[in-house]
Write a structure and sequence with these properties.
The complex is a heterodimer of chains A (383) and B (247). Chain A is built from 16 helices and four strands. With 383 residues, chain A is mostly helical. In chain A, strand 2, helix 4 and strand 3 form a beta-alpha-beta unit. The termini of chain A are far apart. About 2% of the residues of chain A have low confidence. With 247 residues, chain B is α/β, with parallel strands linked by helices. Chain B has one domain: Divalent-metal-dependent TIM barrel enzymes (TIM Barrel), CATH 3.20.20.150. Chain B is 36% helix and 16% strand. Chain B has ten helices and ten strands. In chain B, the strands form two sheets. Chain B has an eight-stranded parallel β-barrel, surrounded by six helices. A two-stranded antiparallel ribbon of chain B has the order 8-9. The longest helix of chain B is centred in the C-terminal third of the chain and has 15 residues. Classes of the chains: A mainly alpha (383), B alpha/beta (247).
Chain lengths: 383, 247
């Protein structure tokens, strides 16, 4: 497991917790659970260190990549291929599927292999098919998730999951920035509009697909999907927005412990790609926390935003981590939800609190009419 | 103390793959681990002269097979100097591996005779990749033999027809085998189970007595990984026995 690790993947979240006088313990519990799954993966793939070739990367997405695992979380994976075609790639996919299946006895919950996850993902589609009719829903999802919530798993020094993942992520970012930076004034920092539009498209696609799934699948798991849309899916969009805005915003003060936003000297596409890679390596909650710490200058406003966003998310993870609550949400019908204590009184209230924190961060300028973040939201979101 | 198993086959490492830019350290490590085969690597032009000057100081007595990899890139103006510098290698009776795209004047290389090994190329090169392209080189240098790079052939054709064609066409000329796995950027990496299986499918056709040189980049890798790589390389070319698929 050679992926770049930091001691506390939520260091900035915890710094904000201290500032707010809070603990938000669900985040640490999720990190522990994620590490537990990481250890299971290491056991499952022991003896299979030569399974992947030099052009393949085992990439985990979802709650694992966000460091937000709770009991019963799925282990969403893709086999990312960045190289010449080979029939051996199918053997690799089957090998990973088999290993994940074996991992069930250790508590691993793997996805099926007919959807977006649990299968092969080819780099060329991710890089060359951005927009247009060839950019399918699945391709859009895989591409954006590669930036927003993905983590390569190095099985041993003999395979190159991290390098392959980094190369593909760099190429995706290069597409977004080359086609944008070309038109910018040299040296001027700006929001990458191409990326931001695609990010917005992805967020809206998730929202529309939620309705499509409800149409196709009826009420099965309806409440759980709805709740995830309110929290983890929305979080992805918010962290992506934060990254796009950070490309333009200049940090108000040197923040040496936060290289996530640092560009020095003359700007080039490479600088933006490097920023993007750091963003892709950072869990979305942590990135959003770092963004707030770097760019929300007013102490009271920062505390208010933080307590709304992370306080509510902490409670959401607590609910999601509770077996009975999760079970309840899985079987809750649409009609019953209106009167349901957990869904209506807790999740809806918490999600509104979460959304109000994001609105305060990105849109509300009541307290500061010169807020630079809000300026960018007005400029880029919508019209 | 070495944990390496003794091998009947001539299997060893390229010095450059074990220790980039430090052939002495690579040779010392191989000596300590009872590796019986070595390829001295001067892949960069600047490495050639120091390595040639240092030949007398190298402890090669423990090796049953020594070969020498000439620089892979230099301009036509330097060709004569390269050939001059390689003369002591030739006089020692060691095989000289050369990439065909730096043979600008074939006649100047002819005197190396059968000690000159032309290596089949990866997809970056414009020549020496396919059976037909290699045939042209052996027409120009009829005494030269082949350094079969199985990873280069596999990179060009993962269906393995090219490797099969090269092996069958030039079976009599194969004098050394290079083994590793190539990524899409032509960098050498440790073997995966898929490449071992692919290489092994032609194992009965690889000549038994030729040295096998591992080119997988193992610079900084722990000894156990290097050992495992050697076992896999041997399994890849071993014809007689079923190899262990537990890798």
């Amino acid at each position: 497991m050679g992926t770049k690790e930091v001691l506390d993947p939520f260091a900035n979240v915890h710094a904000l917790a201290s500032e707010c006088g809070e603990k938000w313990p669900s985040f640490s519990k999720s990190v522990d659970k994620t590490n537990e799954v990481k250890a299971i993966l290491a056991t499952v793939f022991k003896g299979k260190e030569r399974l992947l070739d030099a052009n393949a990367s085992l990439v985990l997405c979802g709650s694992f990549a966000r460091n937000e695992m709770v009991p019963d979380s799925d282990c969403d994976w893709s086999l990312l291929i960045d190289g010449g075609v080979s029939t051996k790639h199918t053997d690799m996919v089957l090998g990973v599927q088999k290993a994940m299946e074996e991992g069930k006895t250790l508590g691993l919950k793997a996805p099926g292999n007919s959807g977006v996850f649990g299968n092969m993902c080819i780099s060329h589609d991710l890089v060359h098919r951005i927009g247009g009719s060839a950019d399918t829903n699945g391709n859009l999802t895989r591409r954006l998730l590669m930036l927003l919530e993905s983590k390569p798993i190095n099985l041993s020094p003999a395979n190159r999951s991290e390098t392959v993942w980094e190369g593909v992520v760099s190429s995706i970012l290069q597409r977004y920035f080359e086609e944008d930076v070309h038109f910018s004034v040299k040296g001027e920092r700006r929001v990458p509009r191409f990326l931001f539009n695609d990010l917005t498209r992805y967020w809206r696609t998730i929202c529309v697909d939620y309705a499509a799934k409800h149409w196709d699948q009826g009420e099965a798991k309806w409440a759980l999907r709805n709740a995830k849309l309110r929290f983890s899916r929305k979080l992805l969009y918010a962290s992506g927005m934060a990254f796009c805005f950070a490309c333009q915003l200049n940090p108000p003060k040197p923040v040496s412990e936060m290289p996530l936003f640092e560009i020095s000297g003359e700007l080039s596409t490479k600088d933006y790609v490097n920023l993007g890679k750091e963003f892709a390596r950072t869990p979305p909650l942590e990135y959003l926390a770092a963004f707030i710490r770097a760019f929300v200058i007013d102490d009271q406003r920062r505390k208010l935003i933080s307590s709304k966003i992370f306080g509510s998310y902490n409670e959401w993870l607590k609910i999601l981590g509770d077996d009975a609550s999760r079970e309840h949400l899985t079987s809750l019908s649409h009609d019953d939800a209106r009167e349901d204590e957990l869904f209506d009184r807790e999740i809806r209230v918490l999600s509104k609190e979460f959304a109000s924190g994001l609105k305060l961060l990105f849109f509300n300028r009541d307290e500061d009419p010169t807020d630079a973040i809000v300026d960018l939201s007005i400029e880029y979101v919508g019209f | 103390m070495s944990a390496f198993r003794k091998s009947n086959r001539l299997t060893g490492f390229s010095t450059g793959a074990l220790e980039k830019g430090n052939y002495r350290k690579a040779i010392d490590w191989m000596g300590e681990h009872e590796v019986n085969t070595v390829e001295l690597s001067a892949l960069r032009f600047d490495e050639l002269e120091p390595l040639i000057k240092g030949l007398d100081g190298i402890h090669i007595e423990g090796f049953e097979s020594v070969s020498f990899h000439a620089p892979s890139r230099f301009c036509v103006e330097k060709e004569k100097r390269v050939i001059e510098l390689l003369q002591p290698v030739y006089e020692r009776g060691w095989n000289i591996v050369v990439h065909p795209d730096v043979i600008y004047h074939p006649d100047s290389w002819k005197h190396f005779g059968s000690q000159l090994l032309i290596e089949n190329m990866d997809r970056r090169k414009a020549t020496g990749r396919t059976t037909e392209e290699l045939k042209q080189w052996f027409e120009r240098l009829p005494e030269a033999r082949l350094c079969l790079d199985v990873a280069h052939a596999r990179q060009l054709d993962t269906s393995m027809r090219l490797l099969g064609s090269i092996v069958h066409t030039f079976a009599e000329r194969i004098a050394e085998i290079h083994i590793s796995e190539l990524d899409a950027h032509c960098r050498h990496h440790p073997l995966s189970s898929g490449s071992v299986e692919d290489y092994h499918s032609f194992a009965q056709f690889y000549p038994e007595n030729v040295p096998v040189i591992i080119e997988s980049m193992l610079d900084g890798a722990r000894s156990s990984l290097r050992e495992e790589e050697r076992h896999l390389a041997e399994d890849s070319v071993r014809a007689s026995k079923m190899f262990d698929k537990a890798y």
